[in-house]
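Hi everyone, sorry if this is the wrong subforum. Our group has a chain we'd like a structural model of before ordering constructs, and none of us has done structure prediction before. Sequence below.
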Amino acid sequence: HPLRGSSIDIHPNARWQQNGLTVAGGNGYGNGINQLYHPWGLYVDDDQTIYVAEWSNHRIVEWKWGATSGQVVAGGNGQGSGAHQLSYPRDVIVDKERDSLIICDNSNGRVVRWPRRNGTSGETIISNIACLGLTVDENGSLYVTDFGNHEVRRYRRGESQGTVVAGGNGSGNRLDQLSSPQYVFVDRDHSVYVSDRWNHRVMKWVEGAKQGIVVAGGQGKGNGLTQLSYPYGVVVDQLGTVYVADA
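Answer:
Right subforum, don't worry. Here is the predicted structure as tokens:
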């Protein structure tokens, strides 16, 4: 099933518990191993292990299910551009085939691959990119949002340049444009869903399309049920229902 997607069908009328359970952090902000400081990207593994991109602590932390503290698995060596450092990371996913983490190292303008176990440094796999969100499909292709160029690029295995699969026509609100794309989701059909932050909408780009379709928001910034306000994370279930974090 798609990365970050649900492996089960969620009924359209499902009711969600109103009281959540803290599974990471919850001890105020700070750099303690039981704390988080501006957590952004989140990845949950099959065994419920949680990986969090900690923006202000310049690290990726792993929280096992039921744990009361996390473990630093990437970065954590202060802000910097060294191979052993991160600078304001925004997203993280797990590449199970290579047992590694793939990280949007935002302020360093790079995407890095970091060994998941006992890794002491990362390898830059994409350079000169204003990365905010990333995901992979079942073929191992990597999709990365580039908010500087207002586009989403797909990198097949071994590619260094990638192909634009959404946006890429400058900043704007036309259907063939994005404006500061944030996070990205790819479904089984390789359609790309992207949170289009400054346009207050979520766009769907079918594989090979020259323009997208508005699937959420797009009615201007606001708190109405037809509107979004600076959307961030986005996932889509097997029925095509879009779930979006509405900032």
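For your construct planning: The chain is about 0% helix and 40% strand. The mean pLDDT is 94.
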